[in-house]
Amino acid sequence: MSVRVALLGCGTVGTEVVRLLEDQAGDLAARVGAPIELAGVAVRRPGRHPGVRQELLTTDPAALVARDDVDVVVEVVGGIEPARSLLLQAIKSGKSVVTANKALLAEDGATLAEAADAAGVDLYYEASVAGAIPLLRPLRESLAGDRITRVAGIVNGTTNFILSAMATSGAGYAEALEEATRLGYAEADPTADVDGYDAASKAAILATIAFHTRVTAADVHCEGIRTVTAADIAAAEGLGCAIKLLAICERVPGAGRGTAAGGAGGVGELGAPESVSARVYPAMIPLSHPLASVGEAFNAVFVEADAAGQLMFYGQGAGGAPTASAVLGDLVAVARNRVGGGRGPRESAYASLPVRPIGDVLTRYHVSLEVADRTGVLSAVAGEFARRGVSIAAVRQTGGEADGEQSAREQQGARLVVVTHGAPDSALAATVEALAGLDVVRGVESVLRVEGLGRPVSTLGVAG
Amino acid sequence: MSVRVALLGCGTVGTEVVRLLEDQAGDLAARVGAPIELAGVAVRRPGRHPGVRQELLTTDPAALVARDDVDVVVEVVGGIEPARSLLLQAIKSGKSVVTANKALLAEDGATLAEAADAAGVDLYYEASVAGAIPLLRPLRESLAGDRITRVAGIVNGTTNFILSAMATSGAGYAEALEEATRLGYAEADPTADVDGYDAASKAAILATIAFHTRVTAADVHCEGIRTVTAADIAAAEGLGCAIKLLAICERVPGAGRGTAAGGAGGVGELGAPESVSARVYPAMIPLSHPLASVGEAFNAVFVEADAAGQLMFYGQGAGGAPTASAVLGDLVAVARNRVGGGRGPRESAYASLPVRPIGDVLTRYHVSLEVADRTGVLSAVAGEFARRGVSIAAVRQTGGEADGEQSAREQQGARLVVVTHGAPDSALAATVEALAGLDVVRGVESVLRVEGLGRPVSTLGVAG
């Protein structure tokens, strides 16, 4: 008996999947209890794959998926179609599937999960989030007897490389993006990464598993890093912070209910049920926070659960071999099930919690304003915050050092930086909008959220 | 249909298991597809468990395990017997088992695994290593399609708390142990923790899973922390290092074979096959190494695999709730299998690699000697290293500052610290023994291994 695999796609990841299957054939057979054999590899241009045995190559993925001698379909092409149709075709014909397709899972994971459930086959997708780092299996299985309250961290290697490069060299965004592209950390069209969509897809997948609630990409508030400047990075450093693109998924407690998590980031209205929040944005975090030292294209994710407490997972979030490692892990699980009978855990989305819009979530802002240097500026600015119930944690005004003639000072202007305490994001956003409209505010230079303060993280040197 | 659980033991961990089962009954039923019910709880003194429904309590664990209405046995008592007999009895009567028993698994895991295999039932033990941190499932399942080369880190909370306290306060070992006991981080008899046996059991379990090779506690070289002094901690800090009790499991490449891992810590003789090493000892590691910032009772484990690269797992390594989280995760997995049919992955020990004794493994020593301050001392000491092929990386002599009369200097003595390059541990140990016998050496003050240098770890600030 053998387990026969149809591989869809043979790019960076697919090539490594083929290599790992060949290099480890003996070990895999011992671990599975039967050999894993490649039945075929569907590609667009067979000529471009000299390393793959030619008889395996085909340009007809649908025909490959339809074959009776195929047990498992592994999809590493990406994109919504034709991947979705091919995977559904595979599932409906009783084949188990392993995929790395974050965009598809975040947009329409429900369809795949329901089809897999109905057909009684496995659907695994560890490789869709955080590359080599075992993350989905721990969330779905190891913490299946616990209540996860928060999953947050760095899940996109491209943007982390760019922000790390900006911090290391003082370079601006465009220059760092260029370096990332040159070194292969960014694709020719980096939009999905730099605009946060990749991280948002991953956040949707993480939130779905963590909270047993279907969360799609559309539910995830998403801001990228295009507007992060070298000045922002320097300002952050001056505050003892780094800037990272964070994916944050957390439970938001309902009002009037005891929550074991306590202060998990939101305040519900009276009688409001528990809900969840999922968002992606660049944020300042203390340099002492472990996430601040995650450099280059590495990923790191913090998980908090009621009984387990705080966990952290760290490793390579992207790349051919790391992603292929995750694919192979799922493939062995699926193959073991084909050999021994049985299935992996089904999707669990029974909780069906509402998804909180970003406006309702408590966040903190770091706002940098260019202001006129004259009487009443601070009062006007502070008034806008107070008017919306936003408490200020820190203020710093610089640049108004020139004394002397009022007109000279006025011309020069000053910079006013405000760091708030936690407040509903909508109140903070409304305050910024109002500030932009004030006469005395010449411009809003920068708005960045602040995370990781005031959360009793661990003894990894983070202030509680 | 329900899944009925017999719980053996109701101490710190068992109490939390009961609480989690009750508090999350609805969620667990939704996730499993059937309710999980406690059939009985075996304890020694029923009067001591007022929080458990009295009708569940029994003082006859064997009778509880024998009941036909029990599907799963969860063992959180610890120790070799009667746990082994009870678990074997459970397995042989077709019940799946979940255990946290590191000592039993490290000493006789093979017997349990073979019995579980023969009976076709699940055997899970995530809670036996690293508390709440999902570690065994990732090693066994997520990395099942990869080749793990190294698993190393901090796996004992008691000793990590003690060493952290010594580093923070400058306290000596005895004082730090007292504080640990007072705060509940150390048991009344701390031997298993401070002598390294607990970490060694965990190393055996980790190595077995990582290398598909049966490794028992007896195979693990084990040194504890009783001999670590405040002076050692200070010396380490002076070198930019911290002292941690490390568990290190790694492949040792055979000679003449290409190894993807490269330099994984050992040199095989010509034609020698690949082997594995498992050891526990206190060691100096650079303060910049992520493990150095793991404080208090937290655990952290680095895993290296050929395709995945470097991974790190971090979290609470002990405690009632964290350990219970791991137990519950396994219990849900087992319950899902009972409901849906199927089994988890069987033990995989097919590789049967030889276990390398510590003597053959390349390590580095930090040796602190009290020496006579006179002519020829350095030459004599250096000669012992050279004679055994041990290369010296750094030397520092202090205390011989007093100039003047030879007799005065001789009386005062000096301290000589030598840090070696990598060499077979047996050569290093033999050198130390020879040094102790030299006239000019008044005493060997301290010998500590050095780890984490020269290993290209990551961009977490560690020098390659």
Automatic annotation (TrEMBL), chains A, B:
Reaction catalysed? L-homoserine + NADP(+) = L-aspartate 4-semialdehyde + NADPH + H(+); L-homoserine + NAD(+) = L-aspartate 4-semialdehyde + NADH + H(+)
Q: Does the keyword Magnesium apply?
A: no
Show the InterPro entries listed in the entry: ACT-like_dom_sf, ACT_dom, Asp/hSer_DH_NAD-bd, HDH, HDH_cat, HDH_CS, NAD(P)-bd_dom_sf
Instruction: Return the broad EC class.
Output: oxidoreductase
Would I find NADP among this entry's keywords? yes
Which family, according to UniProt?
A: Belongs to the homoserine dehydrogenase family.
- What exactly does this protein do? Catalyzes the conversion of L-aspartate-beta-semialdehyde (L-Asa) to L-homoserine (L-Hse), the third step in the biosynthesis of threonine and methionine from aspartate.
Recorded protein name is Homoserine dehydrogenase
Organism, by scientific name, is Pseudonocardia ailaonensis
